Amino acid sequence: MKWAVFPLLVFAAVAGAEGPCDQYSTKITALDQSTCILRNTTEFEDVFGGFNGTRCRSTLRVTTNCSCSDGRTPMTKRYCVHNIALSKDENAVNVTLGLCNGKGGCSIWNFTAYWEVDVRSPDVSERLKAYPRPSCVAPSIDVSPELTAVAGCEYFCYQSYNKDIDDGRPCVKEWYPASVTREPVVTLTGTCYQGICRHSASSWRPIDGVCHDRERYSKYGEILGSCRHRCPNGTEQNRPDGLTCLIGK
């Protein structure tokens, strides 16, 4: 009978190892661009790692609830999450850290640090209630078999958080709907800079076998002398509706 009780006692000890406040705490790791927190080391650690306070913490256990007390750690000595904000990285958030003030709140009066934290770990994201955002998308159009251009120089991101495209990729400057399918037919492309589709001679990509209106592209913004343009093979094609042109005599 005594041997039967022993496993129950061991199980109770293991089950009780997790404190009541552990559900609010998690271990977070700062990314490279985050603020450093000076590490207070023990004498034993100093032997291997240098003088006290000269090293930085990159990993820290924090709580999201300063009103919970486990009776072990002083409430004023716990690192806590004061604020969480979106970062440019879809897989990370900006976390403002403080210290529990002993009154159930997270204070940044005597201590403040700013960490960018990866939230792809399920444990971290669930404890912080901050989750990776879906990747930003930029709708694109197939201009030709060899060229794809974005419909606008802006990424559409999670919760209407949009951002400019500024990498010089091809973008659609002019288009018209096809007469039957109403699908967009691109007649002029540009390049994305600071969220604007700008005219750029380097954005043109001539395709063999396709008749491009090179004259209109090279004289972008000027009044056209004709509503038809000549192809390399000697044939002519109509220019799209809506372009400004000279009235024939």
Automatic annotation (TrEMBL):
PROSITE patterns: ZF_SWIM. Residues 58-91 form the SWIM-type domain. Residues 1-16 form the signal peptide. Keywords: Metal-binding, Signal, Zinc, Zinc-finger. One of its GO terms (molecular function) is zinc ion binding. This is Basic tail secreted protein. The lineage of its organism: Eukaryota, Metazoa, Ecdysozoa, Arthropoda, Chelicerata.
